[in-house]
Amino acid sequence: MSELKTDAFWMPFTPNRTFKAAPRLVESAEGIYLTEKDTGRQIIDATAGLWCSNAGHCRTEIADAIHQQAGKLDYSSIFNFGHELGFAYADRLVKHTPDGLDHVFFGNSGSEAVESALKIALQYQRARGKGTRTMFIGREKGYHGVNFGGISVGGIAPNYQTFGQPVKANHLRHTLDIERNAFSRGLPEQGVELAEDLERLVAFHGADQIAAVIIEPFAGAGGVILPPKGYLKRIREICDRHDLVLIFDEVITGWGRTGSAFASVEWDVTPDMITSAKGITNATVPMGAVFVQDEIYNTVMDAAPEGMVEFFHGYTYSAHPVACAAGMATLDIYEREGLLTRAGGDIGRHWENALHGLADLEQVIDVRNYGLVGAIELRAPDNLKGKFGGKVSALAWEAGVMARGIGDALCMSPPLIIEEHQIDELMQKLRGVIKDL
Ligand code: PMP
């Protein structure tokens, strides 16, 4: 390997010293494949990057749009003036959201989308005279990014142990129940009653303290935890009963992952806000968004005196023109190639069958899937419990597959363009890796 200076770059979410002792580098990518630097090996990107390169890597059309926009209007502030593309893009995005979520607030990442959504909820509660509603309900194992609001509503232990809980929140129980739901195909049958945990938290804190409930329709970074049948509907009903704002964090579940543009559409439960990022630009240029329901938008608008800023929040790069151009070109591809619904068709069924085809391996204790997402839960040796997934993911890389280790599971969310024979190739490789454990 040519001399690589690794000291300056403080890598995120990575054991820096271990990585830097033996860096694994990717040189290029195309379609569902990554090319490893130095070896030139083709690696199947079974996670679409980080659940985000939904239309596959290095789509020329998106690259061209980025290039053209950077040469035409590379940047313009959108504080007090605007550019046409931002409005046109927002207008086009909301054609894909559930009915009534017709407004978009832009940021640059999932974390910023979450932070913006939490602040919109606070602003809304104040605007309608319910300013005592300042805390949030999230869920154990929930992941909502790394900013102070997101780590507080999220349910990821190391965040608490390192940074505490800067924003007041409490958490619903998570819904992973391997004993009752092992090897479910699609949504698990057991566990709808876990939604009642929200009633417990409302009774404990009082509805007049709670600004919003935020959950991922399925928890991604928590290990692909699918909602039991009826669970999300029950959560919606309880929110309605207590007048709570419901936010779905669809940073992973959005843009075709489940077989619909959004999981809210797929599972027919409409939240009051949806956070989005990742696949929104096919991960080419950072972009985050919050989709906001009409009543929230209108209440916030009407509460401020004419001429005053209604929502004191925003980013230098909100609706960045280059990100909007990338997003427009991404939508062109999603719409033209039918990618937003593809996971719900034959390819999703093939994925399900192929994934469950590994169930005969004695090391596999659960397989869960929906659309084009899935997880294989492995029987971990005692000394590696809770971190076996990471070990197996390293072995998978050696075998030519990028899969994400979370706890003792291997998690995958391949690009939505994946073909049947590529799924077969992927499973064959994983079978070899798991069999040899
Ligand atoms: N919400 C969810 C559900 C996510 O999965 C993620 C990222 N994995 C985020 C928020 C944070 O997104 P970002 O890393 O772009 O800040």
Automatic annotation (TrEMBL):
CDD domains: OAT_like (cd00610). Pfam families: Aminotran_3. Keywords: Aminotransferase, Pyridoxal phosphate, Transferase. InterPro entries: Aminotrans_3, PyrdxlP-dep_Trfase, PyrdxlP-dep_Trfase_major, PyrdxlP-dep_Trfase_small. The keyword Aminoacyl-tRNA synthetase does not apply. GO terms for molecular function: transaminase activity. The keyword Cell membrane does not apply. This is Aminotransferase class III-fold pyridoxal phosphate-dependent enzyme. It comes from Microbulbifer halophilus.
